[in-house]
Amino acid sequence: MAATPGDMTGPEGAEAPQGRTRWGVVTAILGLPALALFTFLLMMAVWVLVSDGS
After folding, report:
1. pTM of the predicted model, to two decimals?
2. Domains of the chain by residue range
């Protein structure tokens, strides 16, 4: 039986599937919260610098 392009048990099964790669998924999982945290910290820094301290 020949392996079809979507078959993960064939000789080419070790390759990443078409579309999103494993690194794309890792980047999405880790990158979006990191971007949100960076944005929050940047906004807090701007707020502290702009506030008049009273």
Report:
1. 0.49
2. 20-54
